[in-house]
Design a protein that fits this description.
The longest helix has 26 residues. It is built from 17 helices and six strands. The protein is mostly helical and 344 residues long.
Length: 344
């Protein structure tokens, strides 16, 4: 290292002025515009490492010079290394030669399908979207974990921030999520809650996903969960609009029409009794807790309020519900009418 500094000092002295400053910047200046990671396995070709660094940093000649000086080609470590924003060329090389593989804080939430989850994970890790989706739909892995489909296995994903090795494989990542899910559900409190409900873990997550999609108002989630549980106990169809949107494959649908209610799908709770076969989204923890600690009442209907405040009016009888629904649809029609008038 001392020899390198002597060489660099001589070059600066010879160069002088602006040239000396430029040379200094090449080795000690900020070389990384944006953070990136380099994944290195025992089979990784050194040229691939060099290419990855060059594509994501400045001062490539300085990198090559210092990498050769430290014999990086024959001494680089394996693992996944985070190259942070504004790192210098010298720090990059020393990270790849001496650094430790770092962990990754991976946050997952708000995914409706395995495809959406794969995309989120790919955006926050070294795993590609194709690799992750292939693992999420791997029939052997699905069966190994005790599920019948990728949609059922989707129930193991609890929204949270997880700390995992940066170079974790897609399979190991799924196993990590499964272990965290098992840990959550195995607690005596959760087991007692499931027993009281008469639900399996999959069923609890499925109902929680419907509650999650029904409302953003966390204060009424337990009440909505209670409505659905009342309907299940009475042998009534759930008639949950979010399940129709899922069956249509379009969560952006603003208004459920009569023709939508007839769509043939095991997820359509207007024509199928009981719960759908799997979650229709990744529910947040509030929705999960709302199901486990649902509000006990005698409501069996609810409808969005005409105030459009994201909350609902609840009803015990069909007549009450019809009145609530009429008020909401009248307000909706009036709103659409005003929008058209503004356009004209």
């Amino acid at each position: 290292m001392r020899k390198f500094f002597i060489i660099l000092l001589l070059l600066i002295l010879v160069g002088g002025g602006a040239a000396a400053y430029a040379l200094y910047q090449m080795f000690y200046g900020a070389a990384v515009p944006e953070e990136f990671s380099v994944r290195i396995t025992p089979r990784t070709d050194y040229e691939l490492i060099v290419d990855k660094v060059k594509q994501n940093s400045r001062y490539n000649r300085a990198f090559e010079f210092y990498a050769d000086y430290l014999d990086l080609k024959n001494t680089f470590r394996t693992g996944t290394f985070v190259i942070e924003k504004d790192m210098s060329v010298m720090t990059i090389v020393r990270t790849l030669k001496y650094g430790e593989s770092k962990t990754l804080r991976l946050t997952i939430n708000n995914a409706r399908t395995p495809e959406a989850l794969a995309k989120k994970i790919a955006a926050r890790s070294h795993i590609t979207e194709e690799e992750m989706l292939s693992t999420l739909r791997d029939e052997r892995l699905i069966a190994e974990l005790g599920f019948r489909s990728a949609e059922e296995m989707f129930s193991i994903f609890l929204p949270n921030t997880y700390e995992v090795p940066c170079d974790i494989s897609p399979r190991d990542l799924v196993l990590k999520f499964k272990a965290e899910s098992d840990k959550y559900w195995s607690s005596p409190v959760r087991q007692e809650q499931l027993k009281r409900l008469g639900f399996t873990q999959l069923e609890a997550m499925t109902l929680a996903s419907i509650v999650h999609e029904e409302t953003n108002a966390q204060s009424e989630m337990a009440r909505i969960a209670g409505v659905y549980i009342n309907r299940l106990n009475k042998g009534m169809l759930l008639q949950a609009d979010p399940t129709v949107k899922y069956a249509l494959g379009d969560p952006s649908v603003k208004r459920i029409l009569k023709r939508h209610l007839k769509i043939e799908s095991p997820y359509n709770t207007y024509i199928n009794e009981g719960l759908p076969p799997a979650p229709i989204a990744m529910p947040d923890m509030v929705a999960i807790e709302a199901v486990l600690e649902y509000e006990k009442h005698d409501y069996i209907y609810f409808c969005a309020r005409p105030e459009f405040d994201g909350k609902h009016n609840f009803a015990r009888t069909h007549r009450e519900h019809e009145a609530n629904a009429k008020a909401y649809h009248n307000a909706l029609n009036e709103l659409e009418k005003r929008k058209k008038q503004k356009k004209n």
